[in-house]
Design goal:
Chain lengths: ~60, ~625, ~220
């Protein structure tokens, strides 16, 4: 996967999240159903949990970070 | 020694100071915002929130954390407070899990006595038809208080068992987060004080606090909401601590399937407590906010067009039972774990089907999340939901059956001895069987429609709780008493306690169910003599007093034996569990050296089998 | 069965004193991480419960009339704050103190802007700036909006306080490149608050058709 400690990847994920948010906004004003909106929201949540909250540190043994 | 050196005294001072400050804050803010100074709901809510914080600051449960925010390091304090008698550590913040476990246990026992006394008061009223000494309003308050005080006793009792035993059983030095552990205990104390204060104002809906009644009743409800929120938060934090402890602090060689079986039960319990408890906290906060700010979340409002633009009362029932049904498994799973833990010791045989028992606890916990709707068969929700919830509820019988067969398999062909803990374990099985067999009758929608809100429910519930919690809790107290005090309890008094309480409870439970099938409603102060339940009611009351008397014997036994009991030695029960391999009473630092697990936990009677070894003592 | 050796002297020794240091820190870090994540799971049930309340009372086809522009702006601000928080943590991992301070203060600032946006525009606390359109006591729309945003705002406020404490501790030199659990916990707590909003934003602003309630 990506090297998680760079500044670049953070910005990239931020841009993807922004794009998804704008997508959500237009889905919302065009009355696309609740299920699809929640799906996009889940995708955003997974990105934040994986890249920002680095959930994988829970099961990796290293203790340096 | 000054009185204020006791943490609990400082806490109570903080409690009442906080209450005054909170009330003043609300009154002043109301004046600033241009409202009338006094609104009892708002003023009390402010008072309660600040009083709980005041208690925690006063007792010192947050001192270390507050220092951390300023960058001050605080080493973990061990041993009793300096320059004070050793007993004072039980009345203040202490980080040792054994001290916290005893604090929980003793508080739970006191609450059990208080809650039981409430029951005796209104049972006396019910012994005869007609109103004799309790007016219906007071009757309802006492009855509702019995509910929550007893449930608080159970939650604290479980926390006591878990805190004392889990680190000992997995050979850990302490819990994962000792400060959080102490905080979680001390959060209960102001909550309980608040709960008891609610009696002065009254609240009359029964423990369920369904709206709209709980939105219209006296201000005592606000205290109940916040008290239960506090106890719930404590139970969330406690379970979080237990899960981390069990997952990360096990010694070398102790795989999950080599943990003592009680740990599995507590792991399953903790999963429920960690998650579901949020829902009752949320539901009670919503009730409090609806009362204080008028937010229409549960109370319907109809506009001119006849549409409901307000809330829905049934929403509360969904939120409430999403916790409160799994909560029943929180109450019974540790008890069932104690039964599974004690039977092999007193049968001198391996636990039958260890893995199945371990997984059945998890299965009960997980299925328990899907069954809340069986409390709502008569609530008026979509009728098809009745079928769904009926099927999911009946599923619970499968893992519960696994446990029963495991107990029978363990007993079968064992060399049984009948000391008091074993008697209470067997009593628990018999009583839980009564509760369990009356369960499917209520889980079936067709029969539940007739039995809903009758004494049959009361009988069923008390049988499951006594079988699943009270009897095993007493078994646990007798069993681990030597480890806690270093002395044996009095066996004769223990047996007397058992032989009064068990038949007393059988009688009480079956009589309650009988009254229910005869048409006796629950939560009413009076009943029509024409129902023909007067004799049955009298029997229930007499049985209740017999149980109470037997518990007095237990209290006397526990108090006197701590002084005069025979010295117990390290391992009076010849148990293989790690906690029995260390001195009694357990020392401040339980394990001088880390232990390693080299075998199966319950291989009683198998030649040459070993469970634990001491690291560094020859084997590595 | 081997008994555990229990000599009084050995019992008096606190095992952690013997091998304090790296192993102990790593073990404690693992427990801290798991504990915090369990707390998130627990809180997830609280916020999930609030979402349930929203769908139970409003259904999937109605929502209150809320200003879409404001919603998009506050959501973006919170998202940007999450990015800057992750940058702050990365800076700490790389030992760049100055960048850390800048980014974490930026995070707090964005958090405050989000909070201000919610308070001024959604709650209408200052009618002179923006006229109030919803009240908590009016109808189920106002009640649920205030319940959801209120509970979320409580977490934002605690997050900002947490950030300021961590910033102050970092200023005093309490964290190192290797050991900064305080920073890490603060960062993932802040991201968690963002995750909650990721679900609340569509639930409050986007799902269903806006209805005008007649009283």
């Amino acid at each position: 996967m990506f090297k998680q400690s760079g500044y670049g990847i953070v910005i990239l994920i931020g841009l993807i999240l922004a794009a998804l948010t704008i997508l959500e906004f237009f889905m919302g004003i065009n009355h696309i159903g609740a299920a699809l909106l929640m799906l996009v929201a889940s995708l955003k949540a997974i990105l934040v949990i994986y890249f920002f909250m680095h959930v994988s540190r829970l099961w990796t043994a290293e203790g340096e970070h | 020694m000054r009185l204020t050196s006791l943490g609990v005294v400082r806490g109570l001072v903080g409690y009442f100071a906080g209450m005054l400050i909170g009330m003043a804050v609300v009154v002043i803010s109301r004046l600033v915002l241009g409202m009338s100074a006094w609104d009892q709901e708002a003023v009390w809510v402010g008072g309660i929130i600040f009083s709980i914080i005041g208690f925690l600051l006063g007792v010192g449960a947050m001192s270390d954390w507050l220092k951390w925010t300023r960058g001050v390091q605080t080493p973990l304090r061990h041993g009793p407070p300096v320059n004070q008698p050793a007993w004072t550590r039980y009345f203040g913040v202490d980080y040792n899990h054994k001290v916290i476990g005893i604090q929980y246990g003793v508080t739970a026992f006191m609450l059990l006595v208080v809650g039981g006394s409430f029951a005796l008061i209104f049972r006396s009223e019910l012994a005869d038809s007609g109103i004799t000494f309790l007016q219906p309003g007071t009757y309802n308050t006492v009855l509702s208080m019995h509910g929550w005080v007893a449930l608080a006793a159970i939650l604290l009792g479980i926390a006591g068992i878990a805190n004392y035993l889990v680190p000992l059983m997995i050979g850990a030095e302490d819990m994962a987060f000792p400060r959080l552990n102490a905080f979680a205990y001390w959060l209960n104390v102001p909550a309980i004080v608040t709960l008891l204060i609610s009696m002065l104002f009254g609240w009359d809906s029964g423990w369920t606090a369904y709206p709209p009644l709980s939105l219209r009743g006296p201000v005592g409800y606000q205290m109940v909401f916040w008290a239960i929120f506090g106890i719930g938060l404590s139970s969330i934090l406690g379970s979080l601590n237990l899960i981390v402890t069990m997952l990360l602090m096990r010694p070398k060689g102790m795989t999950l399937f080599r943990m003592p079986i009680l740990c599995w039960a507590i792991l399953a319990t903790s999963i429920i407590q960690l998650t579901a408890t949020q829902l009752i906290g949320q539901a009670f906060l919503m009730l409090s906010f609806e009362r204080t700010l008028g937010m229409p979340l549960f109370n319907p409002i109809y506009n001119a067009a006849g549409e409901n633009i307000g809330g829905q009362p049934i929403l509360f029932q969904h939120l409430f039972w999403f916790y409160s049904h799994p909560a029943v498994y929180v109450f019974v799973l540790p008890g069932l774990g104690i039964i599974s833990e004690l039977l092999p010791v007193f049968s001198r045989k391996p636990l039958f089907g260890y893995r199945w028992v371990a997984l059945s606890s998890l299965a009960i916990a997980l299925v328990g999340f899907l069954v809340w709707g069986h409390h709502m068969f008569t609530s008026g929700y979509q009728p098809y939901l009745r079928v769904v919830f009926m099927i999911s509820t009946l599923l619970v019988a499968v893992p519960t059956g696994v446990k029963f067969f495991s107990w029978l398999g363990t007993l079968w062909g064992g060399r049984l001895t009948f000391q008091t803990p074993m008697l209470f374990t067997l009593g628990a099985i018999s009583v839980f069987l009564i509760g369990g067999l009356s369960g499917p009758i209520l889980a079936t929608a067709a029969t539940d429609l007739f039995l809903h809100d009758t004494y049959f429910i009361v009988g069923h519930f008390h049988a499951t709780i006594f079988g699943g919690f009270v009897f095993p809790f007493f078994a646990a107290i007798y069993y681990w008493y030597p480890k806690i005090t270093g002395r044996m309890y009095n066996e004769t008094m223990g047996k007397l306690h058992f032989w009064l309480m068990t038949p007393g409870f059988w009688l009480m439970s079956l009589a309650q169910m009988t009254a229910g099938t005869m048409g006796m409603r629950r939560r009413i102060a009076d009943y029509d003599p024409a129902l023909g339940v007067e004799n049955v009611q009298l029997l229930v009351t007499i049985a209740g007093f017999v149980i109470a008397f037997s518990i007095l014997i237990m209290i006397y036994n526990l108090f006197t034996s701590a002084e005069v009991g025979v010295l117990a030695g390290n391992n009076p029960w010849r148990s293989r569990s790690p906690e029995w391999q260390i001195p009694s009473p357990a020392p401040e630092h339980s394990y001088a050296r880390p232990i390693t697990v080299v075998g199966e936990p319950y291989d009683y009677g198998l030649a040459g089998s070993t469970y634990i070894a001491t690291a560094g003592a020859g084997d590595d | 069965m081997a008994a555990v050796t229990t000599s009084a002297q050995a019992a008096a020794l606190h095992p952690h004193d013997a091998h304090a240091g790296h192993d102990h820190y790593a073990a404690q870090l693992r427990m801290n991480r798991l504990g915090l994540w369990l707390f998130f799971i627990s809180e997830g049930f609280l916020f999930g419960g609030l979402l349930t309340v929203r769908f139970f009372l409003w259904g999937a086809d109605t929502r209150p009339e809320l200003d879409q522009t404001i919603g998009l702006i506050v959501t973006s601000v919170l998202l940007i704050s999450s990015v800057s928080m992750r940058l702050a943590e990365t800076a700490m991992e790389r030992g760049n103190r100055k960048a850390f301070s800048v980014f974490i203060l930026l995070t707090a600032l964005f958090g405050l802007i989000f909070l201000g946006g919610v308070m001024v525009f959604e709650w209408g606390l200052f009618p002179s700036l923006y006229p109030a359109h919803l009240t908590p006591w009016g109808d189920k729309y106002g009640a649920v909006v205030f319940a959801m945003t209120g509970m979320h705002a409580l977490h934002v406020i605690s997050g900002i306080i947490f950030i300021l404490i961590v910033w102050n501790l970092a200023r005093k030199g309490n964290f190192s490149q290797e050991r900064h659990w305080g920073v890490e916990s603060c960062a993932i707590y802040w991201h968690y608050v963002d995750v909650v909003w990721i679900f609340f934003y569509p639930a409050l602003y986007l799902i269903g058709n806006a209805v005008h309630v007649t009283h």
